[in-house]
């Protein structure tokens, strides 16, 4: 298994649950829960009947030499890839007035009846705001208890190993859904080598099968579908693994119409990814939205983002900037060069207000 990712600003040490939002209190299970047998083979819990949470924890610790199922997942996961990680202290977010139609499309899909499929694929070139949309949706769904998990790939920060994806998703789901965690505890008891299996097996046994059991045995614990977000899939270092993840998700969505998980994937429109699903395959399976670079909405969003940004700078440096700063033609020049790329506009604003130089007017003239 690959080594843990390294970023320029490593996160502080914290329990796994510190990286994710809490789910609504209605999803918390009673203190006493049944242990579900999920394997036809004999296992150390095969004859178990009922345990309190305290007894279950002690039993699990005995099985795993003092290490809980969350710690097992943490060893193979990348918590710094989650939307709330301290390693992503300043992630891109949508301004309230940008990408409004696109965000509304995602929310409407996420809150819908599933008739358009349980998969939403947002495609677009670099810097058009895909990650900002993914971050904003993660935060909004997290606040309502509808976010199941997230994984933000980042090649510059070396968060690009496909083997981290499923353990990271399972870790977040386990910290939010108690009965899901107990099912995983049973799985690890019966199959302690599960994290050494291939991604297809892990996807089935750590993500799909536990929720199938929850639907069959404890449907009352599921309060609406949970959204799982994979952002920057094209930044995964293995192209074959990128296609495999698309195939795993789309195949499950196509074969199982009703299931408590929804999937949002954001990526560049790479040909090898788009060829994974034909246009015919998308019908009734996946809602696909391709963001154009220089469409009218994108140009308007860039202008609004720049205006809001320079207004903030003006207020901060009100005693040092001349009246009417910046000249209107400068904003139009930047808007024209940005060509609808919100990422470029955000970069320009950060450059202008760089605290190291502390000279926004001088930076604007560069």
Question: Would you mind describing this structure in some detail?
Answer:
- With 366 residues, the protein is α/β, with parallel strands linked by helices.
- Among the domains are: 80-162 and 222-290, Rossmann fold (3-Layer(aba) Sandwich), CATH 3.40.50.300; 296-365, no CATH class.
- It is 44% helix and 10% strand.
- The protein has 14 helices and seven strands.
- The strands form two sheets. A five-stranded parallel beta sheet has the order 4-5-6-3-7, sandwiched between helices. A two-stranded antiparallel sheet has the order 1-2.
- Helix 8 (239-255) links the parallel strand 5 (226-231) and strand 6.
- Helix 2 (69-76) runs antiparallel to helix 5, helix 5 (165-176) runs parallel beside helix 7 (199-217) and helix 6 crosses helix 7.
- The chain starts with 31 loop residues before the first strand and ends with a helix.
- Pfam families: NPHP3_N.
- Residues 107-268 form the Nephrocystin 3-like N-terminal domain.
- It comes from Macrolepiota fuliginosa MF-IS2.
- InterPro entries: NPHP3-like_N, P-loop_NTPase.
- Keywords: Repeat.
């Amino acid at each position: 298994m690959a080594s843990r990712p390294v970023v320029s600003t490593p996160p502080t040490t914290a329990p796994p649950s510190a990286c994710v939002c809490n789910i609504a209190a209605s999803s918390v299970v009673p203190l006493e829960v049944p242990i579900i047998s999920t394997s036809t083979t004999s296992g150390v819990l095969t004859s178990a009947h009922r345990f309190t949470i305290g007894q279950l924890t002690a039993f699990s610790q005995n099985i795993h030499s003092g290490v809980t199922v969350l710690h097992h997942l943490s060893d193979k996961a990348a918590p710094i890839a989650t939307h709330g990680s301290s390693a992503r202290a300043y992630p891109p977010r949508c301004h309230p007035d940008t990408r409004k139609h696109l965000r509304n499309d995602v929310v409407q899909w996420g809150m819908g009846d599933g008739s358009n499929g349980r998969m939403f694929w947002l495609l677009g070139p670099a810097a058009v705001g895909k990650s900002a949309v993914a971050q904003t949706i993660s935060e909004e769904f997290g606040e309502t208890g509808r976010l199941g998990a997230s994984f933000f790939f980042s090649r510059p920060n070396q968060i690009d190993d496909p083997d981290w994806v499923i353990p990271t998703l399972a870790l977040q789901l386990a910290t939010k859904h108690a009965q899901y965690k107990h099912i995983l505890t049973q799985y690890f008891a019966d199959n302690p080598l599960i994290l050494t299996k291939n991604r297809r097996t892990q996807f089935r046994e750590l993500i799909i099968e536990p929720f199938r059991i929850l639907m069959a045995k404890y449907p009352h614990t599921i309060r609406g579908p949970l959204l799982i977000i994979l952002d920057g899939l094209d930044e995964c270092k293995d192209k074959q693994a990128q296609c495999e993840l698309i195939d795993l998700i789309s195949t499950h969505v196509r074969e199982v119409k009703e299931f408590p998980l929804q999937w949002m994937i954001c990526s560049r429109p790479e040909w090898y990814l788009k060829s994974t699903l034909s246009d015919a395959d998308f019908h009734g399976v996946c809602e696909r939205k391709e963001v154009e670079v220089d469409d009218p909405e994108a140009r308007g969003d860039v202008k609004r983002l720049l205006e809001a940004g320079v207004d903030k700078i003006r207020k901060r440096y009100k005693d040092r900037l001349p009246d009417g700063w910046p000249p209107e033609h400068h904003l139009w020049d930047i808007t024209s060069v940005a060509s609808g790329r919100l990422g470029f506009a955000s970069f320009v604003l950060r450059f202008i207000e760089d605290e190291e130089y502390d000279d926004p007017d001088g930076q604007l003239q560069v």
